[in-house]
Amino acid sequence: MPVTVKWARERISFELPSPDTPLSAIRASLADYTHIPQHAFKLVHAGAVMKDDAAPISAYHLHPNSVIALIGSADAPPVATALPPLRAEQPVLNSIQAELAQVRATLAPALALFLADPTHHKEHLRLGELLLQALIRLDSIAPEPAWEHARRERKDAVREVQDMLDRLDDAWAARTV
């Protein structure tokens, strides 16, 4: 006799054995299929919980095309969900440190040269644009609220790049005054 077992979003077509088969045999088959321990779910048919595992399945008035709901009970172990994995703090710290290292290696020397002779308009525009891009990249790195170290690193990196941009603009403004 075919029945349908509804389990979460799945519908399982299930061929029931003879009517004198105990409910425990059905529960064991479903436990094997779902990998949920037998004691960790309830079976419900026509609004009634199928409690007595020793009772024959005929006692539950199942008929062809009946629907049985398989429902996890409160004491069931948590079922794995499709949630995204938690991010780790270290890769975020690495991103912040890599961005700051890139700024220090490429833009800091160019800024030092510009500050020594702040007369090149194109160099002022180029450095300003590159420093702003670095700030935007740092701003796009979003540490989790609980990651104090990463949040502090990002704040310090933003402060350092912003200071470089301020020095660039101050030198340019002082040159035109």
UniProtKB/TrEMBL annotation:
Residues 122-172 form the BAG domain. One of its GO terms (molecular function) is protein-folding chaperone binding. It comes from the Eukaryota. Residues 1-71 form the Ubiquitin-like domain. InterPro entries: BAG_dom_sf, BAG_domain, Ubiquitin-like_dom, Ubiquitin-like_domsf. This is BAG domain-containing protein.
